[in-house]
Amino acid sequence: MPAMVRKLAQRLGMLQHSFVGGVHPNMHKLTADIAIEECDIAPVHVLPMKQHIGEICSPLVGVGDLVLRGQKIARSEGYLSVPVHAPTSGRVVKIEEHTIPHPSGMGLPSIFIESDGDDKNDESRAPISDWINTDPTQLRERARMCGLAGLGGAVFPTFIKLVQDKRFPIETVVLNGIECEPYLTNDHRLMLEHAEEILEGMAIIMHMVGADSGIIAVEDNKQDAADTMQQALDARSDMENVVVLVLPTRYPQGSEKQLIYTLTGREVPAGKLPMHIGVLCQNVGTTKALYDAVVLGKPLTERTVTVSGDALPNPTNLRVRLGTPVRTLFARQGLEDFSDIQIVHGGPMMGERLKNPDFPVVKSSTGLLAMSVQAMKAAHTVEQPCIRCGHCSEACPVSLVPNLLADQCRSDQFEKAAQYDLFDCIECGACSYVCPSNIPLVHYFRYGKGQLALQRREDSFAEASRKRSEARDARIEREKAEKAARRTRVRQTHAPKTDEAKAETAAETGGGAKPAAEATVADSKTVESKD
Amino acid sequence: MTGLLYALASLGAFALVAGLVLAIAQKVFHIEGDPMVEKLDALLPQTQCGQCGYPGCKPYAVAVASSEAEVNHCVPGGERTMLQIADLMGVEPKDLEAEPAAPMLAFVREDECIGCTLCIKACPVDAIIGAPKQYHTVVADHCTGCNLCVEPCPVDCIDMLMKPELIEHWSWPLPDTKRAQLGHERREQHAGHG
Fold it and tell me: Collapsing DSSP states into helix, strand and coil, what is residue A480?
């Protein structure tokens, strides 16, 4: 299809598809019209050693060290990992465990940096303004060294996706500006305020993966953002094959696989990545961060966060340094008493519900919501029996049967649930949202997934232990056999000592095994005859 | 009379052929070991701890396969393993003898270790490394927490510690609703009665 025709068809919505299921929650975009505000630098920043999906980092600095903003303070230890950088200049005061926004309420080793107020930058990374003539692998290394991870909330290390693989050439780059979660408006504001930077970032991505077309996807409740992006796009001459598409608002359209299906009609197979069908999807926040990393040479040290919720006096959008204590952000927006408050990290549909605000802003912090406990209770009343209405199956964007899966998880039939594709569940919460019986379906799936993962871990540990145990038994057997063989050999060579003359003759005749054996036989005979 | 001879001869010949086929089949389709023992062994947690009264998981599997031992002696395996074994053996499940303890990990206090290698010899899964007169240490990822290294240590420098809870291994509990607990209990009762 010629590019012009395709572009036209895309604009007319002829190439659009519709993912199955989905829901239309009340969007509560309280902060859509509030410009992003700069947040003051906190006196102490807390940087957990893992803020991405993958392997944990190890600290590169010690207590007392002076650091600059953007200086790498923790090194990634594995492939699926990105380093952590200092969010401001200051001194490392301690390295110890601190709670992170995680449903367990557990913590991770974290570096505490006391700000010196100067906010001096680490200038060691040179800007790459001529990225169009730069080798993509060098840009990819830049993305990795700058600690980029998916800022839409999943925090998958970005550099892994930014690769040219001959087996899976990327045709289309999708810029994800959907932001389908209620309350969240940070991507919306970024598109309004930083359209040029985002487009430049998208151009860098297209250059890096060698894609020739691109789609900027925005939901129709953000028409102003779509218009801004379109204007910025028209102002550029080098992005002819990129279109802005406005999609009807529906949750969870912003989920990568659902969005790709809507835009291309291609489904990402279970257990595969979008690159396997020639698509790359990036969030607008990540794209802006890539621009900062490449063109400005700035590592990921800040992000935009929507601070909102029905119990927050002054909701807003903030540009926050990573590691800023969440309590200070809420205090800034007029909330100090958390006794009747439920905090949500992320969006209300998929975010983590947390008991207290003693955790820092991390790379995955899209939103920080303060909800009144009453409102949350109204949404989660007593679980009633399933009435088989089928609403959950209709709402499921991956065509699962949630009520059946929940029954299986509740009664510990995890293997069966896995057969019914429990692991394809994206935990979007659409089923729980529509359930008239208030069944916490997603919670059951999380329980089931966790238990199954535990069983599989135990099984593989048992298998490894069995192998080692068998290897040990085999070794002991072998050593025993060797010892026995050595003993007989020693006995044979030393046996003739009882009869020195014969030993000498045995030695003279060659001292081999056979004569020795004969000698032993002869010995025993002589002993017998003596008796 | 000839009829009888014919009958004897034909039946005899048939018996010979059948015997030959069986003999060949036994050679060709020979199975190493007892398949039941293998299956049972695969269900056991392989801690090799000896809490069942047998020197390891395999010996216990052998004992269960020959109906010499009950199905409920494996303590670390817990309810799940007991039910699986009972299922495989086709017998009624029995109550566990003891609740499985929290997973433990052996730890050698290296300052006090004299390098006697006794714990290395005692470890059923080769999870302790070291050499004579050198410090020994436990490979935490391989330790099954079986406790067998503690007893032989002449200077008592091995501690059994709680296995650290990793955030990656944390999993969601069952929802805190009455129905969740009820459904869960029903399933357990159901499983308990075969």
Answer: helix
Q: Closest chain A residue to B165 measured between Cα atoms?
A: A106
Quick check: A464 and B180 CB within 8 A? Answer: no
Number of CB pairs < 8 Å for A and B?
Answer: 98
pTM to 2 decimal places: 0.83
Of A300, A178, A165, the residue nearest A229 (C-alpha) = A178
The residue ranges of DSSP E strands in A178-313, in sequence order, are: 213-219, 242-247, 279-283, 302-308
Side chain identity, residue B150: V
The minimal CB distance from B167 to the residues A106, A385, A407 is found for A106
Nearest residue of chain A to residue B174 (CA atoms) = A447
B-chain CB neighbours of A457 within 8 Å are 169
Does ipTM top 0.85? no
**Residue A252: is the preceding peptide bond cis (ω within 30°)?**
yes
A453 touches chain B (CB under 8 A): yes
Domains in chain B, start-ordered, CATH in brackets? 35-89 (1.10.15.40), 102-164 (3.30.70.20)
Domain range A1-30+132-298, CATH class: alpha beta
Q: What is the 3-state secondary structure (H, E, C) of A391-403?
A: HHHHHCCCCCCHH
Helix/strand/coil (H, E, C) string of A137-184? HHHHHHHHHCCCECCCCCCCEHHHHCCCCCCCCCCEEEEEECCCCCCC
The pair of structure tokens assigned to B48 is 């090799």
List chain A residues with CB under 8 Å of B45: 458, 462, 465
Per-residue tens of pLDDT for chain A, all 531 residues: 567 777 777 777 667 788 999 999 999 999 999 999 999 999 999 999 999 999 999 999 999 999 999 999 999 988 999 999 999 999 999 999 999 999 988 999 999 999 999 999 998 888 998 999 999 999 999 999 999 999 999 999 999 999 998 899 999 999 999 999 999 999 999 999 999 999 999 999 999 999 989 999 999 999 999 999 999 999 998 888 999 999 999 999 999 999 999 998 889 999 899 999 999 999 999 999 999 999 999 999 999 999 999 999 999 999 999 999 999 999 999 999 888 899 999 999 999 988 889 999 999 999 999 998 887 776 666 888 999 999 999 999 999 999 999 999 988 899 999 999 999 999 999 999 999 998 999 999 999 999 999 999 989 999 999 999 999 999 999 999 999 999 999 888 876 655 555 555 555 554 444 444 444 444 444 444 443
Determine, for residues A413 and B187 on separate chains, whether the beta-carbon distance falls below 8 Å.
yes
- B80 to chain A: nearest residue by CA? A455
d(CA B10, nearest CA chain A) in Å: 51
Nearest CA in chain B to A386: B179
Phi, psi (rounded to 5 degrees) for A360: -90, 165
